[in-house]
Amino acid sequence: MEEFLNASRIASSQLTSYKTIRVILGNPTCDLDSAICTLVQGLLEYTDVKKQQLANVAVIPVMNIPEKEFCVKTEVIYSLKSHGIPLSLLTFRDQISLQNVHSNCNKKLELILVDHHTLSNEDIALKSLVVTIIDHRPLDPTWLWPNNVLLNVETVGSCATLVARNVLQNNPDILDAQISSLLRGPILIDTYNMSDEAGRATATDVAILNTLEQLGGLTSDRTETFEKLMHAKTDINELTLEQLMIKDLKVTNGIPLVGFPLLVENFLMRENAEEVVEKFANERNCNVVVLIGQHVMKDRVSRDIVIYSTLCNQLANDIIQALAESIQPFFNLELIKKIEKEKFTLCLYRQGNVKWNAIPIPSLAIGMSHPSALSRIIYRKVLFSPDVAVTVEGNVATTGHPSLARMSQRYVGSKCIVKTVHNCFSIL
């Protein structure tokens, strides 16, 4: 791995020497699964390029966050250091301009997306450059990829499972103790140590994990490894409240989803926490922020959800309504507390069904120039959730979910015709 990362750093500083730049891009959260998948898939690509003696191809794994934010990824830092990987060899998103590489007519940019399959608004111009996608989330039906994009998408507990299988099928020789152990970590974290209660592990995860342990000669206890990683993930003593807000940040349809390695209820007990959330929303010009907390003790998982919203916010009301009406079989949510301030409201829910780790986020893709412009409601899918179908035509919406129908009717213009079928919630 170190040889590959050294080569990638040299390549990133000498891009003019290459005709093809192959970038492996993780998701914008840069969590353990994303980071490890980016590096290992990059290593697989690098060994393939070397084998074919393609001297004009550079392979660069990119952590999809600015370097200054990496300090909050405590479990990633722990994992890399414990495997002897120098952090100085990593390449971050603000250290390479993909747009500039793309605009260089003499360069061919190839993108391999791991642990995600949609692009942010800032990266939408790069869509035509994507050659491969590896993701463990169900495909977002609003993102249609052309047939020439290789899709390795399967609903499993961890993207590392898919990357490991990819390595096993194409170059198992690189699965030494270091690489096998690196991949083992996110599989254990994402499946909560293969916990039956969490319900995240699939037969594929089990089989791949067993194979990694066998090939890598991994003898350390799974529970011990899991607990060390979880300790690193939840070790937030050195982080400020502001840093906690971006430690596990996702943005879905313009709505920030802020994940915490502790219950949100406990986060809000900290001094100035409510003000930090308000400032976070104001800086991003957001009227709604979803806060998701979890606490893991051995193989037991607790979760809670907080909806922050400015006053008189209809979108927040719709999300809250969807949550309330999704008690069974999705979340089993209980409203614990409602905090009302002068400029915002916080609604705290305890999640009884911990097997469901997603929240309904309506996407209002409403054309701003005309009231009859195309509108749609999107529910992004959690792993293992049932499909949700929505069909909207004019002002009529039919769906298996009552709140979706009302939201569809509310946001669709009188002349608008929308027909969508979605099987997705947003992964948290």
TrEMBL record:
InterPro entries hit by this protein: DHH_sf, DHHA2_dom_sf
GO cellular component, one term: cytoplasm
GO molecular function, one term: exopolyphosphatase activity
Transmembrane segments: none
Coiled-coil segments on the chain, per record: none
Name under which the protein is recorded: DHHA2 domain-containing protein
